[in-house]
Design a protein that fits this description.
The complex is a heterotrimer of chains A (434), B (279) and C (304). By secondary structure, chain A is mostly helical. Helices cover 71% and strands 3% of the residues of chain A. Chain A is globular. In chain B, the strands form two sheets. In chain B, strands 6-7-8-3-9-10 form a six-stranded mixed beta sheet, with helices on both faces. In chain B, strands 2-1-4-5 form a four-stranded antiparallel beta sheet, covered by helices on one side. Classes of the chains: A mainly alpha (434), B alpha/beta (279), C mainly alpha (304). Chains in contact: A-B, A-C, B-C. Chains A and C meet through helix 2, strand 1, strand 2, helix 8 and helix 15 of A and helix 2, helix 3, helix 4, strand 1 and helix 9 of C.
Chain lengths: 434, 279, 304
């Protein structure tokens, strides 16, 4: 059997060359208008410029790349097949996967707790880690809507924006503190979730997608144009930073500050580290909350709704309430993340809440593996760190980002961690009866 | 009929029209408590549409469906939304092309069916979130009920397997078990024997009889497999082109000239209607 | 009254462009049930190709307007179709048969990729071209306001009508159209009948890209400027148009496009230009609340 499969994959060198030549030809067609030719603005008029060497290099790269890639894949596939056949008999993937994942989860927690201690002086690392955690939190929030309830939401950034602007407005105009504003902003975002959810209850997946996308755009356009409230395109500036239970992170002055209270020497990194631990705490709370919800009737109803809405109705489940609760809770978590974002940046503008942001959060959920909490962490790491790694050649960052999205999806269409952990087990509750 | 006790469900002059098509035409039918009522008829006779009208998935064009709920008194099913039919009227159905929650485990499927009771116990998830004892008791009770049915239906070995990964016959049983977890007064089964092998359908016969006699659940049964229908039904209603063409005991139906002519009409009608004769 | 007439003309022109792009969305959705998020960027690629070819023709001194228009259309359609084909082949085909969300994410990735690729290779700045088709017909003048029908607007509407006619013929009368429609209904069965489903899907993508290419050329002629971001905005509008008209329905896509063009034109003229997008999306939500399958979409009967 395996010999047969191997033989099937053995392609003659001429065939390989032909295949690569075809790819090179396509590359030629794609490359002529984009790489080979370009227009340069010269004194108000456009002039043609050519880059034939670059085009040639591109075609050659495609030709060689295809040859190598195809060869490599064929080898890999043959080896994998042989291995799978050998191992197929003794594998029980479901059970084998979970302890390892648990350890990875605890490991990640340990690393994230220790990170600012190790990198106290490296502001950049702590800052980047904070960004990762914001996306982790957003991912966990959206996971409720998309991963668990199966409602395709392309406008999640709207709730993030609602949270951020609620805090921004409350803090700058009414002088509210971070901790006062946090629950209000969460409630505000949740109400927006319900406002979005209500008219879309009857819509199927893809119709829902465009409506949510439209909702996100509506919120953004309103933020851009409602200058009195949102400051318009300039946004809201000098948003107060959160304090440590009333102790501000400031150079020593008349009032007690964080540094003076604890007898430390003032350092700007205190705030950075504090913000890091703050988002870590928020994210962990979110995780705890969502994991717990998943095991409650409402969480099971979300998943059941994703699996089969009609069957849910036949079991007496009120589909409307279940969907709205998913929208509201997902939105609330996004709102919390928004408050943190506003507090951390000290400045917000509509530019931070574009569709691209929604797309990235959705990508995190899907790439991570729908419904998987740990998958969200992994995907956030990949998607935030990848462009950061590409900072040296900044122009290629987003190009790399788009490519990564496509490649990861093709490599693992179910997401990095596609495994679903049951919410309860018979064997666990009764002991091993088998 | 005058001495008969009040029926559990009485369908009166039910009509369902889709554009020019009369899917159900002036159908009246009584379903007695603790009995199995078979609904048979050729493909396209309107049987599934009838179920959809009963369970709130379609709004009938005309007519009424009255349920005499032992605790809540009379109810009009055609006025309820589909989830209310299951939740308040406790009329629960299964589907012709099985509708499980495929990625969830068998046990989870059965727990989801007890959503309303559990959701109530979890007090809008708050009690559940903090793991208060009241909710924990409710969850244990729900698990016990689910496990009980799984044991009865011989599915307990598969409790932790994703429902979608199991073979067809088993999925049919899971769907019935899931419906039973809603504590139905009336269980509407849409072709439960389709795709079952002879041994499985014999087991199904026993199960249905047990449910009606011992558990007191009324069953409304759509089925093509005559060995099941004739064997278990107390009462049979025959539909053709949305109309009721005959009604009575299995023995009476097997002899009914209308049924033989309009529903089967062929030489081999005898074979199909008398499964015992076939072997 | 005069303003209304002018906005009617402008709205119909804009709507025709949206409609052409929307057909690409609707066809792809019909055949493989996915939202091709990169479709707007395909249109953007075509606009850039148009800019390059117009400049190239000017360099060679070809000044006949019909000839240069024809050449640009041909070249843009040709190359853009290759882009459409490649996008399907690389980003979507490997994901056929997986979950519904996987191709969507890969499409978003492709959209980001195309935008940044064009930004890198063609520059991030706005590119203005020398006006190609100037002038127009003054229809009437009321109180000093002249209603003007530009030649480019006539061109857009005529080309759109011609394309719609040709397209309807292609889908309803030809063997490719039959294959395409049968793939929409049941891909497995179509394959069993010996029809090359992969090829049909590829051709569908190329056709959609070709229509987007025409739209790209038309917009370049109409506005005279392009940048790498136009694909996103037009893509979202066209996608909205496709959904509004009922996704999967070709006349619906055109109807939706025209409606959105008109809503935008009139809202901007009479209410507020800033909130025209809010109006578009709000109307979409309203329509979907009452007709969940769009205006001309087949209402989906809840199959129990």
């Amino acid at each position: 059997m395996s010999a047969l499969v191997l033989a099937h994959h053995r392609i003659s060198p001429t065939e390989r060359l032909k295949d690569a030549a075809a790819v090179a030809f396509i590359a030629l067609l794609l490359g002529i208008p984009m790489i080979g030719l370009t227009t340069i603005d010269q004194g108000g008029a456009l002039r043609i410029a050519t880059r034939w060497p670059a085009l040639l290099a591109f075609i050659a790269a495609c030709f060689v790349g295809r040859l190598l890639l195809r060869y490599g894949f064929d080898q890999l596939r043959a080896r994998k097949l042989a291995r799978e056949q050998a191992a197929a008999a003794v594998r029980d993937r479901n059970l084998a996967a979970s302890p390892l994942l648990t350890w990875v989860g605890w490991g990640a927690l340990g690393v994230s707790l220790a990170l600012p201690i190790v990198f106290t002086d490296n502001r950049y690392v702590v800052d980047t880690a904070t960004t990762v955690l914001i996306y982790v939190m957003l991912g966990w929030g959206l996971n409720v809507v998309v991963g668990l309830a199966g409602l395709l939401d392309l406008g999640y950034v709207a709730f993030y924006a609602v949270g951020a602007y609620t805090y921004g407005v409350l803090a700058t105009q009414l002088g509210w503190t971070f901790w006062q504003a946090l629950p209000v902003a969460g409630a505000m975002a949740a109400s927006f979730g319900i406002i979005l959810g209500w008219p879309t209850l009857r819509l199927r997946g893809d119709y829902l997608a465009i409506v949510t996308l439209g909702f996100g755009e509506i919120i953004r356009v309103i933020l851009v144009n409602w200058t009195e409230l949102s400051g318009g395109p300039n946004g809201i500036t000098s948003i107060p930073r959160p304090s440590f239970f009333g102790l501000p992170f400031k150079p020593p002055g008349d009032d007690p500050t964080f540094a003076s209270f604890f007898g430390l020497e003032y350092s700007p990194s205190h705030r950075i580290v504090f913000l890091y631990y703050l988002i870590l705490a928020l994210a962990l709370l979110t995780n705890l909350f969502v994991s717990r919800m998943r095991k409650l009737p409402i969480g099971r109803a979300w998943e059941a709704m994703r699996e089969d809405e009609i069957a849910c109705k036949a079991m007496g489940i009120n589909a409307r309430n279940v969907k709205l609760s998913a929208f509201a809770i997902g939105a609330m978590l996004g709102g919390f993340a928004g408050v943190f974002f506003a507090a951390r940046q000290g400045f917000i503008s509509p530019e931070s809440f574009t569709f691209n942001e929604s797309a990235i959060i959705l990508a995190i959920v899907v790439l991570g593996g729908m419904g998987s909490q740990l998958g969200v962490v992994l995907a956030s790491l990949v998607l935030v760190l990848l462009p950061e790694l590409g900072r040296d050649f900044a122009e290629y960052r987003m190009l790399l980002f788009g490519t990564a999205m496509i490649l990861i999806m093709i490599w693992k269409p179910g997401g990095i961690l596609a495994h679903r952990e049951p919410t309860l087990r018979y064997l666990a509750t009764t002991g091993d009866k088998r | 009929m005058s001495a008969a006790p009040q029926p559990l469900l009485s369908v009166e002059r039910l009509t369902m029209r889709f554009g020019g098509l009369m899917a159900i035409d002036d159908l009246s039918l009584d379903v007695a408590a603790r009995q199995i009522t078979g609904v048979i008829g050729p493909n396209g006779a309107g049987k599934t549409t009838f179920f959809n009208c009963l369970t709130g998935f379609y709004k009938p064009t005309l007519g009424s469906v009255r349920l005499n709920h032992p605790q809540r008194g009379p109810m009009r099913l055609e006025e309820l939304a589909s989830h209310q039919v299951a939740r308040t009227a406790r009329v629960v159905r299964t589907f012709q092309n099985i509708r499980l929650f495929p990625k969830m485990t068998v046990l989870e499927n059965l727990i989801v069916a007890q959503h309303n009771a559990l959701q109530h116990a979890s007090r809008f998830s708050l009690a559940g979130l903090f793991g208060l004892p009241g909710y924990r008791r409710a969850e244990t009770a729900a698990t016990e009920k689910a496990v009980g049915w799984l044991q009865r239906l011989n599915l307990i070995d598969k409790a932790d397997t994703a429902a979608g990964e199991l073979p067809y016959g088993m999925q049919r049983r899971i769907e019935i078990a899931r419906a039973l977890c809603v504590d139905p007064l009336l269980l509407c089964l849409d072709e439960p024997a389709a795709g079952l092998n002879p041994r499985e359908s014999a087991e199904l016969n026993e199960l249905l009889k047990h449910l009606a006699r011992d558990e007191g659940i009324a069953i409304l049964l759509i089925e093509h497999d005559m060995s099941v229908v004739m064997n278990v039904s107390d009462h049979i209603c025959v539909l053709n082109y949305g109309r009721k063409i005959a009604e009575g005991t299995p023995a009476a139906i097997q002899r009914d000239p209308n049924v033989i002519k309009a529903y089967l009409g062929e030489e081999d009608a005898d074979e199909e209607l008398h499964p015992e004769a076939v072997q | 009254m005069a303003l209304a007439l002018q906005q009617l003309i402008n709205g119909l022109t804009l709507g025709a462009v949206y409609g052409l792009i929307a057909i690409g969305y609707t066809m792809v959705y019909g055949i493989i049930g996915m939202i091709n998020f990169a479709h707007g960027d395909i249109y953007m690629v075509s606009a850039f190709i148009a800019v390059t070819v117009f400049t190239l023709l000017a360099t060679f001194g070809i000044s006949s307007i019909p000839l240069s228009l024809l050449l640009v259309l041909l070249v843009a359609v040709l190359f853009t179709s290759v882009y459409g084909w490649t996008v399907e082949r690389t980003a979507y085909r490997p994901l056929r048969g997986s979950t519904r969300l996987a191709p969507l994410i890969s499409a978003i990735g492709m959209s980001i990729f195309l935008q940044n690729m064009v930004q890198l290779t063609q520059g991030a700045r706005v590119k203005p071209i020398a006006p190609v088709l100037v002038g127009g017909i003054d229809l009437l003048t009321v109180d000093g306001f002249t209603v003007r029908l530009a030649y480019s607007q006539i061109l857009i509407v005529l080309v759109t009508i011609a394309l719609m006619a040709g397209f309807t013929w292609l889908i309803t009368r030809t063997s490719f159209g039959r294959q395409q429609r049968s793939c929409e209904q049941d891909r497995t069965m179509t394959a069993l009948l010996g029809i090359n489903v992969d090829r049909t899907i590829s051709l569908t993508f190329m056709l959609g890209a070709a229509l987007a290419a025409v739209a790209g050329v038309m917009v370049t002629v109409y506005y005279g400027v392009v940048d790498f971001f136009i694909g996103f905005v037009a893509g979202i509008k066209a996608f909205t148009a496709a959904v509004l008209g009922g996704i999967g329905s070709l006349p619906g896509a055109m109807l939706g496009g025209l409606l959105i063009g008109l809503i935008e034109a009139f809202w901007a003229a009479y209410l507020s230009a800033e909130y025209k997008d809010v109006a578009t999306f709000s109307i979409l939500i309203l329509v979907l609340m009452f007709r969940p399958s769009g205006l001309l979409g087949r209402p989906e009967v809840e199959k129990v």
